Backbone:
C-alpha cells in the first residue's frame, strides 16, 4: 500500500469553491504502479460514494451529482491528485477521502484519513 494525506477541506458558503489535494508517499515501486486515484465522500448516515476518479493516463470519471462542477486532476511526477470543487451545494457536505488503486498482480487499495468539507451559510 501507499500512504495518502489529504488537505484543503473546510467551511464554505453555498456557491463557493474549495480545492482538495492528496499526496501519496511510500515505496517508489508502489507509487509508480498506481492505476487509478480518486475522491470519495461520506455524509453522516450515508454510505461512502464515488465522487471522481482519474487513471494514470488521465481518463476521468465523475458522479452525476458533481459533473460540470468538480474537476479532478493528477500529477504523476509529484504523486498528487486534486479535486477542484466549484458551485458547492449544502448536499456536498461530507468527509472526502482520497483513494489509490492498483489493479492486477500485487493489487492494493489505499485510503487517506479524510478531510471535512462543510457547505453552509
Residues:
Amino acid at each position: 500500500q501507499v500512504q495518502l494525506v489529504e488537505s484543503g477541506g473546510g467551511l464554505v458558503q453555498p456557491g463557493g469553491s474549495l480545492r482538495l489535494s492528496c499526496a501519496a508517499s511510500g515505496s517508489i515501486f508502489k507509487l509508480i504502479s498506481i492505476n487509478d486515484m480518486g475522491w470519495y465522500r461520506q455524509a453522516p448516515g450515508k454510505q461512502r460514494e464515488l465522487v471522481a476518479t482519474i487513471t494514470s493516463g488521465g481518463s476521468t470519471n465523475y458522479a452525476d451529482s458533481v459533473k460540470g462542477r468538480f474537476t479532478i486532476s493528477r500529477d504523476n511526477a509529484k504523486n498528487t491528485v486534486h479535486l477542484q470543487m466549484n458551485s458547492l451545494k449544502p448536499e456536498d457536505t461530507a468527509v472526502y477521502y482520497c483513494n489509490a488503486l492498483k489493479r492486477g498482480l500485487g493489487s492494493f487499495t489505499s485510503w487517506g484519513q479524510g478531510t471535512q468539507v462543510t457547505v453552509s451559510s
User: Anything to note?
Assistant: The first helix runs from residue 28 to 33. The chain has a mean pLDDT of 95. The two ends are 39 Å apart (CA to CA). The first strand starts at residue 3 and ends at 7.
